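Run folding on both entries below.
>entry_1
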Amino acid sequence: MTETTDAETRYYCYMVRCANGAFYTGWTTDPLRRVAEHNAGRGARYTRMHGPVTLVYVEEVADHVAALKREARIKRLGHARKAALAQDHPLSSEFD
């Protein structure tokens, strides 16, 4: 197993749809692992209460700070704008 340096780490902002139809937004270095954590009850409190979740949006960003800023911007969007964002940016095969 090779270790990556901080400069090689990839950061993502992601959005999942919860079982109740709500969206949850977060950041991670591995979206598929993070969704699995949410669905296993090891994610955020909200997703534990409203799971299971489905990955609907992933955006690679430059670094940790960019991930936090993008997460904050998405969280300020209303439900309809989040739904449009997910619909307008289908997941790549990497995240299916």
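>entry_2
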Amino acid sequence: MKILLFTDPLPAQVLSGEKTVTWRVEDYRWIDVGDELSLWYNDGREFAQAIAIRVKETTFWQLTDEDFIGHEKFPNPEAMYQNYSNYYHKLITPQTNLKIIEFKLTKIT
């Protein structure tokens, strides 16, 4: 089972069904369709399990309206780049590679 970490307030959005998509800049877990996922709070506690049902590789500048369905919204592109720069502790630009992972909850732990 592959682990995905989520920072607050995202776990609550996942558990409510509002968030069904996550974007990852560095996918060192090589997540693909059909993979079983363990969803964790940042402190290392599991809050749910899921299965990856759609995976897409793209860049930030190639994001489509469909890519935002099930994902948290940003007021503007600059806020989005800043948010991900803070997450990954590096500069995120429109050219940065991105993996979009749509998942379906299978268990709440």
